[in-house]
Amino acid sequence: MPIILDRRTFLATTAGFIAMHPFAAQAQAGQAHLRIMETTDVHVHIYPYDYYGDRPVDTVGLARTASLINGIRAEATNAILLDNGDFLQGNPMGDYMAYARGMSEGDVHPMIAAMNTLGFDASTLGNHEFNYGLPFLMNSVAGASFPVVCANVATEMAGRAPDDTTLVPPYVMLDRMLTDGAGETRPIRIGIIGFVPPQIMTWDRRHLEGNVQVRDIVAAAEAYVPQMREDGAEIIIALSHSGIGDAAHTDMMENASIPLAGVDGIDVVLTGHHHRVFPGADYADTPGVDAEAGTIMGKPAVMAGFWGSHMGLVDLMLERDGNTWRIASHTAEARPIYRREEDRSITPLVESDPAVLASVEADHEATLAYVRAEVGQTDAPLHSYFALVADDPSVQIVSNAQTWYIEQLMAGTANEGLPILSAAAPFKAGGRGGPEYYTDVPAGPIAIKNVADLYLYPNTVRAVRIDGATVREWLERSAGMFNQITPGEPDQVLLNPDFPSYNFDVIDGVSYQIDLSQPSRYNNDGEVVNPEAHRIVNLTYQGEPIDPAQEFIVATNNYRAGGGGSFPGASPATTVFEGPDTNRDVIVRFIVEQGTVSPSADANWTFAPMDGTTVLFDTGPAAVDFIDDVKGVAIAPAGEGPDGFARYRISL
Asked: Which part of the chain is the Calcineurin-like phosphoesterase domain (predicted)?
């Protein structure tokens, strides 16, 4: 059932307000300016600190975003603060809480402590809230002094959504007092409803199957929004932990914010999940979206980046319409916490809020001790600067560890004796994470922070049984990482910017080439779009062409084996082993057993030659220190890339 709150009135001070936004100057009697602030995808980034690199940074941190929030509150007569999910997992502090300290009933998670300190008005659940299991999630949100809502996850599903028993309340009513342009106060009832991608049932099946069920986002909204209006909601804000995807609605779609905005009765959409910024160029020319005005289906919307990089801000001019309020006009923006200069340096735009830092100081120090614990040695550097263009040591060590683990677990089973392959992808490979977002572990001691850096997610090990023909299709899906290249032409752009690096699986145990002259057989969603195309050529096993009928065991993770990324052959139907151990734990145990690891890449994959052809790709500036170590590819520096990246040229 929904919950009704009257927790506190809005912060009220008008200092500097008129200068900051025209709505404040325009508001008259019966008109009020309401400011809606959003955080999203913070992923336990509270301190401005990179636990993987063990150093302070100026590009992340809720403590920095807090200063933007405090600034709005100081100038605003009417303001609310909302979070859009993915707050419990995403960096070593999240892992420390889940795996080292734990969350018992009555404990307060540091992320919740920081959010309580900031005085959030409400939040929804993101997909990563489920990564550590339901008991951890529920013990964590129990410490929140604000409501956490989600309308499409149910512990008991009825015939229609409003009758479901939801995991947390589907929506909440915030009863507040608005101060209008004449200084008069009037009540308003604001409805807050939340949504999470239905794909959580795939991504965290081991935690959720048999415990919860999910509904389509739009269907849940269409069921609950009329009920919210009946409960007196004058303004309804959707917390959509769902990206801005296709405008056309399809059942159980992951990125549903556009059709969600089209649901009658929803007034404002706060989005997330995509780790992008809206309004902004990321969504230019997207149907149903005005990327400059900040609207989706004509309604105000915002997406505030990730890890605290931005604060989303929707400004509403409200007018009295009889005995209720309605939106007369609106604006939206995403305010950053830093600026990247032309020389690639970072200029912080705000300082950290001391109160937020103090609220989690003890857990920050405990996390530092946790990540600094040494587990072994590496005799070669581990880096991912060239992971998308050549066989790579940071992916190699993951594959080695997975193979080592699955070999042991297949012994004595019906699958013993089948050849074992290992599929692994680079997680930190630049992209939207920026030019510093790469694994970079020097030769020498390996600590837990380095293992977490190699493998960002708390996935568990799985194994699937597939044939040689499906191995080829798996690799064809992975090869969507690259644009089609015209033979004989110079300096073509190599990487497909819309293809996530975590879907670029390299399969170890076979050798192959990727023919870039062919179009991708699969699109970014894993659908066959060029059935005659075959980029994977010269695919061999033990030096011989792979037998399409030969069966293999492929070591992977629960996300992939559960269908994540839509890879051929990776599904619950082909899964033959579900491990209790996380991939990270397996890597740690592998390193401990080996003592010293030698993770040099074996160049089992390369690009097929194309005479007279060159391609360009961008990577981190620090890549220059490792260019001589790259095997199987002719790479040379090609100047500076955009946004702080360095550009390289490959001669095919």
From this structure: 34-276
Tokens of 164: 């479901």
Average pLDDT over residues 360-384: 94
Query: Coil, strand or helix: which one is 323?
Result: coil
Q: Which of 365, 397, 423 is the last residue of a domain?
A: 365
Question: Is 135 within the bounds of a domain?
Answer: yes
**Strand ranges inside 437-504, DSSP E:** 440-441, 444-447, 460-467, 492-493
DSSP state of 9: P
Residue whose token pair is 């005995």: 323
Q: Where are the beta strands (DSSP E) in 349-403?
A: 374-378, 382-383
The pair phi, psi for residue 592, each rounded to 5°, is -60, -45
Please give the tally of structural domains in the chain. Answer: 2
Strands 3-5 and 171-179: parallel
C-alpha to C-alpha distance for 579 and 361, rounded to whole angstroms = 35
List helix spans (H) across 76-197.
92-95, 110-118, 134-141
Helix/strand/coil percent split, the chain, to 5: 25, 30, 45
Q: Give the residue numbers spanning the domain of 135.
A: 32-365
Strands 460-467 and 575-582 come out as: antiparallel
Nearest to 434 by CA among 646, 648, 645, 649: 645
Q: How far apart are CA 217 and CA 55, in angstroms?
A: 39
CA distance 572 to 206: 11
Burial of 251 (0-12, 13-18, 19+ CB in 10 A): exposed
- What's the CATH code of the domain at 336? 3.60.21.10
**No. of H helices and E strands in the chain?**
17, 40
Same domain, residue pair 386 and 354: no
651 pLDDT more than 70: yes
pLDDT tens string 375-398 = 899 998 999 999 999 988 899 999
What are the strands of the beta sheet with 165-166, ordered from one edge? 165-166, 153-156, 213-214
Would you state the structure tokens that stand for residue 401, as one six-digit string? 């560890």
The answer to whether residues 321 and 442 belong to one domain is: no
- For the cut 70, the answer to whether the pLDDT of residue 4 exceeds it is no
Weakest mean pLDDT among 267-281, 307-321, 326-340, 577-591: 577-591
- Local structure of 181: helix, strand or coil: coil
Q: What is the DSSP letter of 97?
A: I
* Contacting residues for 211 by C-beta, under 8 A, at least 6 apart: 134, 155
Q: CATH number of the domain that 617 lies in?
A: 3.90.780.10
* Pair of tokens at residue 282: 């990321």
